[in-house]
Structure formats: C-alpha cells, structure tokens
C-alpha cells in the first residue's frame, strides 16, 4: 500500500503536465505555461476568468491553485468544488485526482465509496492511472480477479501495473500461475522504468529463485538502476553489495553513502545494516550509541530485526541506559513478526523475570514457537521447563513429607513413652533393668562397658529415685547430644539454603562442637568430616551451585547420623524404662532429636532436587 500511495502521489504531481497536453484552448495553454514557469498569479488570472465561463480545463487548473495556495489564498473548499465541477464536466484527470484525494484522505476524510466512484468514472474513458488505482484497491481487498483485470488493462501504458500483474502471475492469484509470463512481465516493466520491477529482478538474480540462476553482477546492475530512481530498498541492497564487494568492486565510502541515503529515506533494512557496522566497529569506529539510534530508526520503520537488536541493547544497557521493560516490548514486536531469536529471548525474559514477572507458562509458549523454527537453544529451554514441573512437584512433595514426618515422629514416639512403673527403682531386678541383648546391638562403648546392672556396687535399695547411675548418665548425655545436633542439623539445612556464603562456617562450627563434646570415635570422625566438607565448599566458592550441593550433603550426613543415633537411644531408653524426671527429659530429648533430624533429612533432598534443576538450567 505504501508503494501504491507513492505512485499515486507521483501521479498527482505530474497530472498538470497531462492536463497541459490535453488542453485545447490557447488561453488555457497560456495558463499552463505560466503555471510551469511558476508564475502562479498569472495562471490564476487566466484560469479564473475562463472558469467563470465553465471551462473544464480551467476549472481543473484553478483547483490545483486553490488546493496548494499558489497565486491565491489556500482554500480547500473552493479547490475541491472546482475539481468536482471539472470532473463532472468530463475531465478525466480531475476525476482521477478527486478519487485519489478521497482514497488517501488528503484534505478530506478518507471515503472509499467516493474514491471508487470517481476512479471508475475516469477509468471508463481509458484513464490508465485510474484503472491502476482501481486495481490496487481490489488488491487491498483481496479481490485478485478484479485486480488482475485492471492491471491487464493498464499495463501497456503504466509499467507499475505490469509489475503488479507479474506478481499475481508469479503467485497464481486471480490468474493461473505462470512463472514464465511473470518473468517476462518483470523484464518488460523493468525495461520501461518500473523501479519496483527493477528491484524485484535484482532480488531474483541475487537469490536465484525460480528460473533465475544466481548472478550477482546482474543483481548489482538492477539494484543500481532502481536505486537511481529513488527505490529505497534498492538503495539499501546496493549499499550492502558495495560493502561486501558483491557483483563488483568493494567501495566502503560509496556503500556508506547509499546506506545512509536509504536510512534517511526510511529503509529499516539499511538502518539495521548501519547499526551492525557501528556496533561491530570493523569497517568504521565503534559507536554503540549510534548503533542504538540506527536500531531505533529501524524499529520505527517496523523492521523486526531492528526491534530485536534494539531490545538486546536495551536489556544489556549498551549505548544508553538499561531498560528491561522496553526491551521486552521490542522482543515482543519482533517475536510477533516471526523472528525465532526474538521469541527465544522473550521466553528467557519470562523465565528469568527480566522486565516482566516470572511466568513459566508464557515462556513455554514462546520457546515452543522458536523451537518449531529450529532454534536449538529454545528446544533446550523447552525441555528444561517440561522437566521443571515434575521437579517442582517432587520438591513440594518432599516439603510436605518433611512436615508430616516431623509431626508423626514426635507424636508417635512421644506417645510410646513406657508406662509408670509401680516398683521403686531400688527394688528393680537385673532382668527388669537391663535391656534385652537383641535391643542393644551397636550400642555406645560407654554403655557396653558398663555394669550389667543400672545400679553400681555400693548403691543400696535406699538410693533416691533421682540419683543417676553411670550407665544412665551416659544415656542422659547422649540424649542431650543428639537433641542438640538434631536442632542444629535442621537449622543448618535452612540457613545453608538461604545463605550459602556462610555454609563453610556452619560446617566448621559443627565440627568444633562435635569434637568438644563427643567422646565416641564415631562422632569424632563425623566432626572431621564436617571440616573436610567445609574445605571442599570453600574451594568451590566460585561455583555456588556445586558449593551448595556439597554443604547440603554435609548437613544431610549429620542429620542422618543423628536420626540413627537418636533412634538407637530411644530403643535403649524404652527398654530400661524409669519414672524420674531425668529419664523423662532424656526420653523427650531423644524424641526431639529424631523429629528434627528426620525433618532435616526430608528438607535437604527437596532443595537438592531444586539445585539439580538449577544446575541443568545453568549448564544449558
């Protein structure tokens, strides 16, 4: 449509010359001579007198003076009235120009019905430009049959009509598809001066489409001919050829001249090329701000590549301030135009929350559109998002299980506290006090080396109920120990996930506490393991995800050990049931240690699953 408007405007500008040729009256001819010599007051003086007598050609000339304010005060109403009178009197040029004014909305609101009526009136008398304009209207309305008919009637006198007819023949719209005829019409229209046809031939010779073989030299020639006539895209293509030395010698200075001319004339393609040159800095000094300005001009020309590159610069803050929100808008414009790279980058914005809220569903849609065009990175992101849903379900599932496990362990094991014994502690027999052998495998060395009775020699039946034996003292200390580290493992699992930088410090602290209070060799080895893991995590400081995985593994090892020890202590306490405050306190501490240690064991795997996903995403 833009090309059509350009042709119509060009036709309006030259219509005065057409009217001059048609003029028959010598006085009217004098008016046209004055008009062409820019003596508009003389032309107005001549035509106003003749127009008063109803001379159609004088009315037409007078309308041009009124509409443009030449030789008299500008008066659109008088100009349109004079033009209408001339058209009604049979002046085809006046009818054509009146139709164009209504079609393009020049000086009046657009009115296609009025435009069609006046163009048909001019076309009935064989006015070529009017017939061509009717064909363009039919083409815009997708009435390809009527468009082809109009182009066929106008093609002998109007090269642009022959070019449009060739396009329809090439695509089989409104007429049978016939590439051979289309090729012939392209050549005829190009030879007769149609810049659009010349540019089309340049494209065909450059790409080697259809019956054409690639011929950069011929492509260069046709681009040059079209560019000389002011064809904007031909100017951009010619600049590109000169820049790369395609079809002729490389000439950077001339290339930049053509590209800058095309950019000034509104070519988005030329703006993108210039922006790339300024950004790369190979053929000219690097200038990121100039590149950004060129991409902005390309975007204003509705060039998808311009939107894409401008969005990239806005997102990175290159050549100007960073603007994530505006970059998303640019990516969206290019993505809607079908650019796979823009669709991929728009998906990343929605995945990472760059300028928009995180929305995995929207990101999935854009990745899918890019992947269907063969974009490999989009395919990978789409796969990651597909796996992510299941990972998220697993993560939340572990968190729910963690909460449930903590509650269940606390309630069930607390409820299993042995019933109050009726007999005093001092009267308990060895069989009643000592736990069964089957219950004590792997018990602590301190417990294994103790007396078979909970009452050491010298303790009599009158021993107070609150007095602890050596063996029970070991159980009491173990209860304090495992309950303390159960809480530490739970808190550590949460802190490490929130602040991975202090993770090594947490592990070192755990190791020191374990070595200070633990007497059993098993726990000492566990303390040294904390030191080793802290060192490994510190070494991986530059790789935070791997560091976090190592830290979590250490806390998970501690939590698992605490849970097993607490469970064993729980069984020993249940077997040697007592009814004094120390026993109840120790039993509850062991239950707390099992609950916290178990809870940490469930929390950590959920975060490990999330980290594995993050590791996969970052590696891709």
Structural features, described:
The chain has 620 residues and is mainly alpha-helical. It contains 29 helices and no strands. α27 (521-539) packs antiparallel against α28 (544-575). The longest helix is centred in the middle third of the chain and has 40 residues, at 376-415. The relative contact order is 0.04.
Helix content: over 70%
**What low-confidence regions span 5 or more consecutive residues with pLDDT below 50?**
1-23, 415-472, 497-501
Residue-averaged pLDDT: 74
Order of H and E elements = HHHHHHHHHHHHHHHHHHHHHHHHHHHHH
> How many beta-strand segments?
0
In one word, what is the shape? Answer: elongated
Structural class: mainly alpha
Strand portion = under 5%
Rg, Å, rounded: 45 Å
Helix count, DSSP H or I runs of 4 or more residues? 29
N/C terminus separation: 44 Å
What distinguishing features does this structure have?
single chain; 620 residues; disordered N terminus
């Amino acid at each position: 449509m833009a090309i059509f408007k350009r042709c119509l405007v060009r036709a309006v500008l030259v219509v005065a010359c057409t009217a001059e040729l048609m003029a028959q009256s010598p006085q009217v001819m004098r008016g046209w001579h004055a008009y062409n010599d820019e003596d508009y007051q003389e032309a107005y003086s001549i035509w106003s007198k003749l127009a008063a007598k109803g001379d159609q050609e004088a009315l037409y000339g007078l309308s041009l003076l009124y509409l443009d304010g030449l030789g008299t005060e500008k008066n659109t109403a008088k100009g349109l009235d004079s033009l209408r009178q001339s058209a009604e009197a049979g002046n085809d040029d006046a009818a054509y120009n009146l139709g164009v004014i209504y079609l393009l909305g020049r000086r009046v609101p657009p009115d296609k019905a009025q435009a069609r009526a006046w163009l048909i009136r001019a076309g009935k008398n064989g006015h070529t430009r009017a017939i061509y304009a009717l064909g363009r209207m039919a083409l815009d309305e997708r009435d390809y049959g009527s468009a082809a008919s109009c182009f066929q009637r106008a093609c002998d006198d109007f090269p642009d009509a022959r070019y449009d007819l060739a396009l329809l023949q090439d695509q089989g719209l409104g007429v049978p598809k016939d590439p051979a005829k289309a090729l012939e019409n392209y050549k005829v229209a190009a030879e007769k001066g149609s810049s659009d046809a010349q540019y089309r031939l340049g494209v065909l010779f450059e790409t080697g489409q259809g019956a054409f073989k690639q011929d950069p030299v011929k492509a260069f020639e046709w681009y040059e001919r079209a560019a000389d006539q002011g064809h904007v895209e031909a100017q951009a293509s010619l600049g590109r050829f000169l820049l790369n030395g395609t079809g002729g010698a490389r000439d950077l200075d001339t290339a930049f001249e053509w590209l800058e001319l095309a950019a000034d004339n509104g070519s988005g393609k030329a703006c993108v090329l210039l922006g790339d040159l300024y950004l790369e800095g190979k053929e000219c000094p690097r200038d990121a701000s100039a590149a950004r300005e060129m991409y902005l001009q390309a975007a204003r020309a509705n060039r998808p590549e311009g939107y894409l590159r401008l969005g990239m610069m806005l997102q990175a803050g290159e050549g100007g301030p960073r603007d994530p929100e505006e970059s998303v808008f640019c990516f969206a414009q290019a993505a809607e135009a079908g650019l796979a790279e823009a669709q991929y980058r728009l998906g990343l914005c929605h995945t990472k929350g760059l300028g928009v809220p995180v929305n995995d569903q929207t990101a999935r849609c854009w990745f899918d559109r890019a992947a269907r065009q063969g974009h490999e990175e989009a395919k990978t992101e789409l796969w990651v998002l597909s796996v992510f849903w299941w990972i998220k379900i697993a993560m939340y599932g572990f968190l729910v299980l963690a909460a449930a496990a903590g509650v269940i362990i606390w309630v069930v094991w607390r409820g299993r506290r042995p019933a109050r014994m009726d007999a005093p502690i001092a009267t308990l027999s060895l069989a009643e006090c000592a736990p069964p052998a089957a219950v004590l495998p792997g018990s602590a060395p301190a417990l294994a080396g103790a007396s078979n009775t909970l009452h050491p020699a010298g303790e009599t039946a009158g021993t107070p109920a609150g007095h602890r034996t050596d063996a029970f003292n070991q159980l009491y200390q173990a209860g304090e120990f495992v309950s303390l580290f159960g809480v530490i493992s739970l808190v550590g699992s949460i802190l490490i996930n929130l602040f991975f930088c202090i993770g090594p410090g947490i592990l070192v602290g755990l190791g020191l506490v374990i070595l200070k209070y633990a007497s059993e060799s098993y726990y000492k080895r566990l303390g040294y393991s904390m030191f080793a893991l802290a060192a490994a995590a510190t070494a991986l400081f530059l790789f935070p995800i791997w560091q976090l995985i190592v830290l979590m593994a250490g806390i998970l090892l501690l939590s698992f050990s605490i849970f097993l020890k607490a469970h064993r202590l729980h069984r020993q306490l249940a077997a040697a049931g007592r009814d004094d405050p120390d026993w109840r306190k120790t039993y509850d501490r062991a239950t707390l240690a099992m609950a916290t240690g178990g809870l940490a064991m469930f929390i950590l795997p959920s975060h490990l699953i999330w980290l594995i996903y993050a590791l996969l995403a970052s590696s891709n």
